[in-house]
Specification:
- With 351 residues, the protein is α/β, with parallel strands linked by helices.
- The chain has an eight-stranded parallel beta barrel with strand order 1-2-3-4-5-6-7-8.
- Helix 9 links the parallel strand 5 and strand 6.
- Helix 2 crosses helix 11, helix 8 packs across helix 9 and helix 10 runs parallel beside helix 11.
- It is globular.
Length: 351
């Protein structure tokens, strides 16, 4: 069922997509399903009740073969796939109103959320930020907090010291995109190195994620230059961050090729801080139907299971918002759960 030409789907149209899940999964092929370990019968059954998808510039195909460092691991007893989560501004950012975002995430089987930092007049975590984190923990969700690029390193350390329950911090957002950053690779490396150092000084248990690379604007080139600077002045990227954060908004095959290139440049932990496929947008050439969205989410997850270097996958938005430039969510503005919701829920609940 092709829905790209529709502009405003009704709840009836979206609900009808649920009956297409079995056909949708069948198109993925037995190989992908065997990796995930889910039967077609289970996936087709009805389950119980970053961001910013950038206006990316065209990027050449990445055809570099796998290096030994990027060779897949295959032992399922060690790794069963990346942690799934959501990237959002806040619990109000996904339009849930009554602060039910984290409870609803848990119902789908998601266990990580990236939140924007909210500060008060003293530049410390605000009351709303602390309330959000209380709700996150109450629902067994792991919080990840984004530190803005314009925050000085020492102030970032002060924030980290006041958030003892948060162990993951992302330094900046899409630093290679002119929409979010004017920093050169050398300037960002210096900022990241200093921020990483002062955060670890006050919070030895904290983990820093760097770059949050946009999928457009030559992310491989930006990271390559940053690596050269880090190698020269800091002894490598490993000494200035605990993990690499990246954003994926392309096809599953191109996303995987890009991740392989990242693995060749960096052998530490990699976090997909945002991913998604635009649905129901006839003005966008990459728009997909709701069943295709479900296909893609499952296929990407299946493709990444052999790579334990990739630690998490955070979809952009849980519930779509009218003010967003693109719709990549698993739940409509009216609260209708799309096919992708049920596919992912069935996958995660059987791990």
């Amino acid at each position: 069922m092709v829905l790209e030409a529709l502009q405003s789907p009704s709840p009836i149209i979206e609900a009808r997509q649920h009956s297409d899940i079995g056909n949708s999964l069948a198109r993925l092929g037995k190989k992908a399903l065997s990796v995930v370990g889910i039967s077609l019968a289970l996936m087709a059954a009805e389950a119980p009740a970053a961001g910013y998808a950038e206006n990316a510039l065209p990027q050449a195909e990445i055809t570099t073969p796998l290096s030994p460092a990027a060779t897949p691991a295959t032992d399922p007893a060690i790794y069963s796939g990346p942690i799934e989560g959501v990237a959002t501004d806040s619990w109000n950012g996904d339009g849930l109103g009554q602060h039910t975002l984290f409870e609803d995430m848990a119902d789908e089987g998601l266990s990580e959320v990236r939140l924007e930092l909210l500060v008060n007049k003293f530049d410390l975590p605000s009351r709303e930020m602390r309330a959000e984190l209380d709700s996150v923990r109450a629902n067994d969700i792991e919080p990840v907090v984004s530190i803005p690029l314009n925050m000085p390193p020492q102030q970032a350390a002060d924030v980290a010291a006041h958030l003892p329950g948060v162990t993951q911090f992302v330094i900046g957002n899409e630093v290679n995109s002119p929409y979010f950053s004017k920093l050169t690779p050398a300037q960002y490396v210096e900022l990241l190195a200093h921020t990483n150092s002062v955060i670890h000084a006050v919070r030895p248990d904290a983990q820093t994620r760097g770059f949050a690379l946009a999928s457009g604007y030559d992310p491989i080139g930006y990271l390559t230059k940053a690596k050269q600077i880090a190698d020269l002045y800091y002894g490598g990227l490993d000494n200035i961050m605990d993990g690499l954060d990246v954003h994926l908004y392309r096809t599953e095959s191109k996303d995987l090729q890009m991740l392989i290139s990242y693995m060749q440049l960096y052998d530490g932990s990699i976090y997909v801080g945002e991913y998604g496929w635009i649905v129901n947008d006839s003005n966008h050439p990459g728009s997909v139907s709701f069943t295709e969205q479900a296909d893609n989410e499952l296929a990407l997850r299946a493709a990444l299971i052999p790579y334990p270097q990739v630690k998490s996958l955070d979809m952009f938005r849980f519930r779509s918002q009218s003010l967003d430039p693109f719709d990549t969510a698993n739940v409509s503005r009216l609260g209708v759960k799309r096919a992708a919701y049920y596919v992912l829920q069935s996958t995660l609940m059987t791990r």
